Amino acid sequence: MLLYIYLIAITAEAMSGALAAGRRNMDLFGVGFIAFITALGGGTVRDMLLGNYPVTWTQHPMYIHLTISAGLLTMLVARYMHRLHAIFLVLDAMGLIAFTVIGCNVALELGYTTTVVIMAGMTTGIFGGILRDILCNRTPMVLRKELYASVSLLVAILYLTLRSLDVNHDLNLLASFVFGLTIRLAAIRWSWSLPVFSYAPGRWSD
């Protein structure tokens, strides 16, 4: 089940990357590249940081074909994308949770400590979006909008806590998804966010 959610998630992320590229008037190569980076960048950065080689997508060429194709397809259906906004929000939230859990599992299999496992989960969950926004020359949305990175952190903590209590794996996944989806969608609905740090030296000058 997690694999199917992952495939849906990377497709949705690739399409969101293509839309971001379109807002910057990129060409076909740019659209495909941004789609690929958005969908698979988090896992790539995770594998590089953990020394987990070969990088996952190099062993599964289907992921490359799927993400680039989804990005290019987005160009053909872009005029209809606004009608699917609500669906994309749900798919994005599911992708965040799936990426986080997968990232945690990769680090666990490599024998890393809990803190590193959590960071690996978060890196997988949010870094694709960070790379997308950097390449599109904008401040990463995951660091300034409604709760997003925080949701990844909380999901990782819950997943590892239930795992340490020997909760059934399927039940653990269900609880993590319900918890993560609830918080993420509530954050979107009511614009929940963390306190913002705004540094302007002139505010405190005499």
Low-pLDDT parts are: none
Instruction: Name the average pLDDT.
Output: 92
Specify the helix fraction band: over 70%
Number of helices, where a helix is a run of at least 4 consecutive DSSP H or I residues = 7
Pfam families: Gly_transporter
Family: Belongs to the UPF0126 family.
Protein name: Trimeric intracellular cation channel family protein
Main location: membrane
Structure overview:
This protein is mainly α and about 210 residues long. Helix content is about 70%, strand content about 0%. The protein is built from seven helices and no strands. The protein is globular. The model has no long low-confidence stretch (mean pLDDT about 90). InterPro entries: Gly_transporter. This is Trimeric intracellular cation channel family protein. Its main location: membrane.
